[in-house]
């Protein structure tokens, strides 16, 4: 429960450590959306033998018309279907860890290329 704008390298190392140490090979991580691509890149470069899906919400869960539950449900489905690797699942789309950015003006995730 940390705002991703104040996350640092130590926080990402802790997430990496938890992912590597758990026996599960399919992992969903809820994450604030501001720096989700940075965390996805950090994990994607280091973890190759698990399927990791990062997910968040543009509109927080406790606000009207939140996208949180839709995104979480989609992430839970995606982690079952995707090949090993690290992904971001947002608003019905899946993005590879090395080809995603958050468009902060439009509040959407999009591919880099």
What would you note in describing this structure?
With 113 residues, the chain is of the alpha/beta class. The protein has helices at 9-21, 36-46, 68-81, and strands at residues 26-30, 51-55, 85-90, 93-96, 101-103, 108-110. The longest helix is centred in the middle third of the chain and has 14 residues, at 68-81. 27% of the residues are buried.
Give a summary of the structure in a few sentences:
The protein is α/β, with parallel strands linked by helices.
Helix-strand layout with pairing:
Blueprint: H1 9-21, E1 26-30, H2 36-46, E2 51-55, H3 68-81, E3 85-90, E4 93-96, E5 101-103, E6 108-110
Parallel strand pairs: 1-2, 2-3
Antiparallel strand pairs: 3-4, 5-6
Structural shape: globular
- Report the order of strands and helices: HEHEHEEEE
Helix content: 25-40%
Mean pLDDT across residues: 95
In DSSP terms, counting alpha (H) and pi (I) runs of 4 or more, how many helices?
A: 3
Largest sheet: 4 strands, mixed
Number of DSSP strand runs: 6
End-to-end C-alpha gap? 31 Å
Uncertain stretches: none
Portion of residues in beta strands equals 15-25%
Structural class: alpha/beta
Spatial sequence of strands, sheet with the most strands: 1-2-3-4
Radius of gyration: 13 Å
Keyphrases for this structure?
113 residues, alpha/beta, 3 helices, 6 strands, 34% helix
């Amino acid at each position: 429960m940390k705002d991703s704008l104040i996350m640092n390298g130590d926080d990402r190392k802790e997430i990496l450590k938890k992912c590597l140490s758990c026996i599960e090979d399919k992992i969903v991580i809820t994450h604030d959306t501001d720096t989700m691509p940075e965390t996805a890149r950090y994990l994607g470069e280091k973890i190759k033998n698990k399927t990791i899906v990062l997910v968040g919400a543009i509109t927080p869960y406790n606000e009207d018309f939140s996208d949180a539950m839709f995104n979480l449900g989609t992430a839970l489905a995606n982690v079952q279907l995707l090949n090993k690797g690290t992904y971001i699942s947002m608003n019905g789309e899946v993005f590879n860890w090395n080809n995603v950015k958050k468009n902060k003006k439009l509040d959407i995730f999009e591919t880099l290329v």
